[in-house]
UniProtKB/TrEMBL annotation:
<protein>
    <recommendedName>
        <fullName>Amidinotransferase</fullName>
    </recommendedName>
</protein>
<dbReference type="Pfam" id="PF19420">
    <property type="entry name" value="DDAH_eukar"/>
</dbReference>
<dbReference type="InterPro" id="IPR014541">
    <property type="entry name" value="Amdntrnsf_FN0238"/>
</dbReference>
Length: 312
């Protein structure tokens, strides 16, 4: 029986979620997101209802596990990807919030002052650094989709893509005291992977990563060694597992210790030995989000971790 693990800066106890009322896969983002699925003609209303139910179910399951969920509604039909809030903002220990420049103009309306103001009322926020003005210069960095942050070692891993610009990454790392580690990652067809968080998840005692997506052998070995040197168990994911969103997971700290939130599809894709490695430090929490996954993201994309201290 696992003893209660200590609180880890890597595993937040609270998250922000957006519940969409008019969800649909976004045609404007499909060009560089090979994980998206085109819906059948006439299926949009059915998809929206299903996605609403899935987001509701995820929030309820997380709350049941002891995670605090700050759940916001999106009743607008103009922001089809709003269910993925981790792309436009992130929060950090010490009371800091970052707001990010988004690659697709269709996604820029997802940034909401009311969410930031609510966080300021509930948590201690000292400053907000807004990088969204970089959009005017064609410079983009889509939050913790574009970056996978090792909060313990202070490293920001980022795969190069349209949505991850090294200039913006350097600025973020300078402001927030992270070391940037940039690499090229491609899928089995040789296409650049649009977001780092679909191929990589860093937990307190483990890392999920699709090493085969890094074609440069020297860079692949360097990153694998670097992760192993932190003492984490490195779980190497295949291209097929990445396509099933096995890398798009997030470690959280619940009522009974650390959990790994991931989709049911992702959990089914993991081999028994991989699950056994993960279960040495986390409890697996599979969540049903098949409709939302049609938009090219999964559970990790749906969760914006709150690394802020509560007021009071």
């Amino acid at each position: 029986m696992r003893t209660m693990p200590r609180i880890s800066v890597q595993a937040p106890r609270s998250v922000v979620m957006i519940r969409p009322h008019h969800f649909t896969p976004n045609e404007a983002t499909a060009a560089d997101n090979a994980f998206q699925t085109c819906p059948a003609t006439g299926a949009r209303e059915t998809l929206a209802e299903a996605a609403y139910r899935e987001a509701t179910g995820v929030a309820a399951a997380l709350e049941h596990a002891g995670i605090t969920v700050q759940l916001f509604e999106d009743e607008s039909g103009a922001t089809p990807d709003s269910v993925f809030p981790n792309n436009w903002f992130s929060t950090h220990t010490g009371g800091h919030i970052a707001i990010y420049p988004m690659y697709s103009t269709s996604r820029r309306g997802e940034r909401r002052n009311d969410i930031i103001e609510t966080l300021k009322q509930i948590y201690r926020v000292q400053d907000i650094i807004d990088y969204s003005g970089l959009e005017q210069d064609g410079v983009y960095l889509e939050g913790t989709g574009a970056m996978v942050l090792d909060h313990i070692e202070r490293v920001a891993y980022a795969a190069r893509s349209n949505r991850s610009n090294e200039v913006a990454l350097e600025r973020f790392c300078t402001h927030f005291n992270f070391e940037p580690v940039v690499f090229d990652a491609v899928d089995a067809q040789g296409r650049a992977i649009y977001h780092t968080n679909v191929l990589m998840c860093i937990g307190t005692e483990f890392c999920l990563i699709g090493l085969d997506t890094i074609r440069d052998a020297a860079r692949r070995a360097e990153i694998a060694t670097r992760l192993a040197d932190t003492g984490r168990a490195v779980v190497d994911l295949s291209h097929e597992q990445i396509c099933d969103f096995a890398g798009n997971a997030m470690e959280l700290h619940g009522r009974n210790g650390r959990i790994l939130a991931l989709s049911s599809r992702a959990a089914r894709a993991l081999r028994p030995d991989q699950l056994a490695t993960l279960e040495r430090s986390v409890s697996i929490l599979p969540l049903d989000v098949p409709t939302i996954e049609m938009a090219g993201g999964s559970v990790r994309c749906m969760l914006a971790g709150i690394h802020l201290s509560p007021r009071g």
